[in-house]
Amino acid sequence: MFDVIYLCFAAIAWTLVGYKAVAWFRDRGNADLGLACVMTGGVATVFLFSAPSLYRAFDQLLGVANLAMVFLCSAVVVFALGAQVLLLRWAAGEGADTRARARVRARWTVAAVAALWAVAVTGFAVGRPDTVEHPRDFSTAYTGSPGVMLFLGLYLAIFGASLAALGTLCPRYAARLGTSWLARGLRVLSAGCWLGLLYCACKLTGFALSWAGHPAPWLSNGVAPLSASVAAILVLAGFALPAVGPRAAAWRRLRRLTPLWRLVTAQAPEVTMDGARRPFADLEWRANRQMAEIRDIQRGIRRHVESDALDIAWERARPVVPDERQLAAVAEATALRRGLENRAVGHVPAHGADSVVVTRSGASAQLAAEYEHLALVADVYHSPLIDTVLTELRQRSTVSRD
User: Fold this and answer.
1) Bigger pLDDT: 278 or 114?
2) What pTM did the predictor assign?
3) DSSP assignment of 123-181, as one string?
C-alpha cells in the first residue's frame, strides 16, 4: 500500500517538476521560478525514495544498506537550501546593490549548508553499524549510534530552520499580492512548512524519549511520517496553485460561456477569429477570446435593439428577480436576443440603443467580475421570463409599424 501511495504522489510531483521546468526554460531570467523547480524536484525525490520497495531496490543495486535514506534526506536538504536562497532573494528588495549582496549571502549559505551536510553524510557512513534495511524505522533503529544521530540531527536542524523561515515569510509576501493565485499558493505553502515543523518536533521528541528509556516508535515512525507526507502534499499544492488555479478558473469560465458564445457567433460568424483553435493548455486565451467576440457582437447589434428594451426588461424582471446581478443578466440577455432577432430579419428601430451591455470591464470592475456577469447572461439566456419580455417587444414593434 505504501508503495502505491508514495509512487502515485511521486508521479504527480515529477509531472509538476516537468511543467515548471518547461516554464523555466522559456523564461531563464526568472530565478524564483528556477528555485521553485529545484524545490519541487526535492519534494518529488522524497516521495520517490519513501516507497519501501524502491528504497530497498536502490540499496540492493548499489550494495549499500540504507543509502536511499541519504538520498531521501539530501533531497529534503536541497528543498531547504532552495528555500533559504529564495528567502534571501525576497528579503533583498529592489536595487542592484542589494541584489548583489543577496547573491553573495546566497553563495555563503550554499557553502555553509553543503559543509554541514558533508559532515552529516560522514556521520552516516561512520555510524551505520549493520546491513539491515530500515525504510520505515531508520531513526528509531539507530538511536544508539552517535554517527547516525549526528546525521539526523543536522538534517532536522537544516530542514527545520528553513521551514520556520519560509513559513513566516510566505504569508507576509502573500499579503502584498491580494487575492491572486500566487498569494493563495504562498499561504498553502506556508501551511505545509508549519506542518513540516511538526514532523521535526515528533522526530526530536522520539529521540529524547528513546534516550530516556521510554521509546515511542508510534511517534517517530507513525505520526512523524504522516505529518511529513501531508506537509509535502501541501507544499506541492502551494507550488501548483499559481499554475493550476488560473487554468481551472479559465476552464470553468469556458464551460459556462461556450454555449452562449456558440449561439451568438453562429448568427454573426464574421466576428470570430480565423485559424485553428489553440491547444487545451491555452484555456485563458480561449476564455478571453470568447468574451471579446461576444462583446463585439453586442456592439454590432446596438442599432437593432430598441432604445427602451433594457428599461422594459428591468421593469418586468424586477418583481420576480430580487438579486441585482441576476437582474442585470436578464436585462442584457434580453437585449442580446432582441438584437440578434431584429438583425436576422433586417429590422432597424427608429431609435436604437446606445449600449446593450449592462456592466463594463475597466478600471471600476475586475475582469473576473465581468466574466461572472457574462456567465450569468449565458445561464438565463433561454429563461421563460426573457421570452415574455421579447413577446411584449415584438407586439410593441408590430403596433408601431402599423
Assistant:
1) 114
2) 0.75
3) HHHHH-------TTTHHHHTTT-HHHHHHHHHHHHHHHHHHHHHHHHHHHHHHTTTT-H
